[in-house]
Amino acid sequence: KMCNGQSAKVLSRPDFLRTLAKFPAELKIFERFAREAAVFVGPAESWQENMQDEAGKRLLAFLEAGKEFQGCEPEFLMKVLATHMVSGRLLAPGSTLEGNAWYVVLAGRVQVESPDGLLLRYAGPGEVLSLENSLVLRAVRGKLAGPALCLELSQPSGTMGSENVERWRRNVQQLRSEERETLERRRSWVQKVAVPALGSTQLLAGCPEDFLQLLAGQLSEEAFQEHQEIIGCNTEGDSMLVLLEGLVELRAKSGKQVGCISPGAVLGEPEALGLLSYRTATAKAVTDCRLMPVSFQALTNALEHPDTPQALKEGFQQLVEGRRKQVEDHKPLAGLMHLRADREEDVGANLLALRAERLPLESGDCWQPSGDSEACGPRLSLILRGRVELSIGSASGPPVEFHVRTGSVVPEGMLATSGAVLRALSADCEVYRLWHFDLLQAAFITPQAPDWFYQLRVLEEETRGYLQSRLSNARGLVQGRWRHPTDVAIRGWAEKKRENLRRAQKRQEQFYENYLGPKLPLLPPKKLGTTAFRSWGELPAAKPTKPQNRGPSPSAFRALKLHRSPRSRSESQLRR
């Protein structure tokens, strides 16, 4: 169909309804919008004609309930509708309204934002909104997005009754003051609460602060009372929950308790990335809690903002593709053990692959183990490939380092208590990190855990025993280098002893030189002649001397009485 040289595609109502029927959630939203808008939209040619009878009465009730027209007479409101009604505005999801006009929401939902994208509140049918404070109206985007219908009004003039106009102006000034205070409180919350909480999460750590502010501007916190269920297993969910205050208990699908998280913990990271649409655990408030949901749509809106760096967009895209690749390759379980042939149907193994974080390591990169007292509880490091060493620093000497075997399931808590750091030594390192409660909720989808869970526990116990022995040895080496209060005295005593030994040796050498002379003469004695004729070869040969007899004298032998022994008989005589 051609209109002013432009082409337009016409979608018939039956085709639209057939397409909409394939999406139940969107169908519900459009049906609600149609019911709300049917009262105000009719076959008449102008809005003034449509605002008669039931539609006019409902619109008059909207104005009377509005804070801007509180205390105004009904005749004044009817004149406003009769003389200052401009036109209706149909907003597609995500489209905006700006300017200094007044709007009455007739159908659908809109969100009130500041010019820099900071979300203030949501508005529904019957609310009267003013954009004189440079505010922006936007039809709601995201999973519950839908169209919105608004009625535009111009400002009342002074000729319509000075008393009513003055009352209307006082109400408007008071609302503007409240909106400014709300905006300041909202900015303060974003700067002091939301941005630090987002920056401390594993998913958003290291992102630019401008991006975090864009994301935080779309968020709000929710409060839950003690023993209240926050999310249920197998319920729809597309958001990541950041715990701001309180304690939350987690249970797997089978009902087994898998953990308890504290402020700063994050639950549902794959849901915020668009990888899961259903909850895999039940969360229940142990104490009064405050949480901040980070929806997939809010994250997408922040990434699609023109000021977001392209490198950040590519990084999130690679993260999502990497998690999907992990599910296809069944990592990290496939790298540690031999799984059964039907692992494609193992929901727990696929869920574990979605929640495991692969570390982008190069040779020389380090990562700090997290303690068991962290907000999310204990954590595991799974070393699938490459050379990894563990280093324990020492203040009084070089660090103690030893190798960590490939295929180990490292409990990071025991390393954190020793102040150890893990370091990649090769460029082909493949290491995954996993929260312990994520492992348990993936394993206990059914009451009986799968075989790979027990194999992981065996690997963990083997690694724990190996690390305990090595850490004990390293701890002894480090403690041997520690300073002792008596080290100064001991060093002084040792230095004094060495000095005394040097003095004694020097005195002994001086004594030999002064009293004993050299050990061997360098020249023959002076009696052999002058120096020219002195030589060892001219020395006279020594006269042979008869050695002295040191044995007994002959008289001693004469004094001995020798007895003659009888002669022995011959053999022939013995035979006889």
Topology:
Layout: E1 2-3, E2 6-7, H1 13-20, H2 24-38, H3 47-50, H4 53-65, H5 74-83, E3 85-91, E4 96-97, E5 102-107, E6 110-113, E7 119-123, E8 128-130, E9 136-139, E10 148-153, H6 162-199, H7 209-216, E11 222-224, E12 229-231, E13 239-245, E14 248-251, E15 257-261, E16 266-267, H8 269-272, E17 282-285, E18 289-295, H9 296-303, H10 310-329, H11 333-336, H12 347-355, E19 357-358, E20 366-367, E21 379-385, E22 388-392, E23 400-404, E24 409-411, H13 412-417, E25 420-424, E26 430-435, H14 436-443, H15 451-480, H16 487-516, H17 554-558, H18 571-575
Helix pairs in contact: 6-7, 7-9, 10-12, 12-14
Describe the structure.
This protein has 576 residues and is α+β, with helices and mostly antiparallel strands. It is 39% helix and 19% strand. The longest helix is centred in the N-terminal third of the chain and has 38 residues, at 162-199. The model has no long low-confidence stretch (mean pLDDT 81). α6 crosses α7 and α12 runs antiparallel to α14. The protein has a four-stranded antiparallel beta sheet with strand order 3-10-5-8.
